[in-house]
Amino acid sequence: MVKKQPPRKPSQPKKNPPPTASSSSSSPPAPPPPPIDPKLLVHQQRILTLFSDAFHPVLSSDDFAARLQSIKQALFNRDFDAAFGSEENLQAYAARWSPTRTLCYSSIFQSIAQYMSAASDNHLSADQSEPSSSAPRSTTPTTKMLCIGGCAAEQVAFASHIHQQSSSGTLSLLDAGPWKSVTQLLQNSITSPPVLSKYASAAAKAANLPLLERGQLETTFTQADVLSLERSALQEIVGSSSTGEPLTVTMLFTLNELYTNGGIGKTTNFLKLLGQVLPRESLLLVVDSPGSYSEAAVGKEKKRYPMQWLLDHTLLDPRAAAAQSRGDYEWEKLESHDSIWFRLPEGLSYPIQLENMRYQMHLYRKKSTSSTGSTME
């Protein structure tokens, strides 16, 4: 558990956070946290401090607990417009539930870094092998990511990943909610030094650097319903149409909501469209609640299917693969985990108590099936 900071803390919410963000009471207990690198612990505390500084006015407001309760009630009623329709609610949500998710997502990005790097390196090598009269292109590692659904946790987690990889990145955030102001606030926090006490030593001031330098991470936000996007609009958001540069697409605690609220038909069509517009060797990362939390009802009888089964049926089913092959691509599954615990290490501090979380994770890669296209194996 994360220790609460003694000063400037608001009242602690009494109820559990939304079930999509944390484990249920019937879940198996979290295993003890593994030994952690002291440097990583320092980095994780830095991420929590970034959130507490950015959302200090929210965390210290008198109505913080009441606003959280209102958000949780709206989520329970599946009234997402009420939960995420105002900037004040988005800031409260980000201050309360995004810190743990950020640390979790960052750890996931680090765990799949080998796949992300391999895709970028292969593209860079192929690009440099082609004759060109233009000036030499930069060989600085650049990671591209598109996050579908959610913004605050994904944005800071990607910044954390870029920091740990000592690279640069471009991030596209896509969500139906009005997250623009929050993403701008966090982008400024990511590229600004942490707030220090006026009594900080000269050495502390000299070592006080931002998480990322300005220009190290380019972030854009698009507010749109992903299930309503036309191919051209999705292609523009994905980018890479001219360069063919692969990217990582994430759907973090998003896909099951699309299945449940948008419908299986629309969500399936979107996944197929996404496969068509993504450059080859791009990755698709899906993270969601484990077990029965991630199920969708189908047909008049409302027969329930696991999210993972629906996803695999769309991407990997032989009939789907045959249809995709006509577009010279197919999907391969790189990793799949039904249940993983992310447990917060001891020693971290945040103004309010944070919880461990459990999730399922599935990683796919788009492969070229054309005779002229290269395929990563």
The gyration radius over C-alpha positions equals: 21 Å
CATH topology: Rossmann fold
CATH architecture: 3-Layer(aba) Sandwich
Q: How far apart, in Å, are the first and last alpha carbons?
A: 40 Å
How would you summarize this macromolecular structure in one to three sentences?
The protein is α/β, with parallel strands linked by helices. The protein has one domain (38-125, 141-195, 211-368): Vaccinia Virus protein VP39 (Rossmann fold). The protein contains 14 helices and eleven strands.
Explain what the structure shows:
By secondary structure, the protein is an alpha/beta fold. It has one domain (38-125, 141-195, 211-368): Vaccinia Virus protein VP39 (Rossmann fold), CATH 3.40.50. The chain has 14 helices and eleven strands. The strands form three sheets. Strands 4-3-2-5-6-11-9 form a seven-stranded mixed sheet. Helix 1 (38-54) runs antiparallel to helix 5 (87-111), helix 1 crosses helix 8 and helix 3 (64-76) crosses helix 5 (87-111). The protein starts with a strand and ends in a 9-residue tail after the last strand.
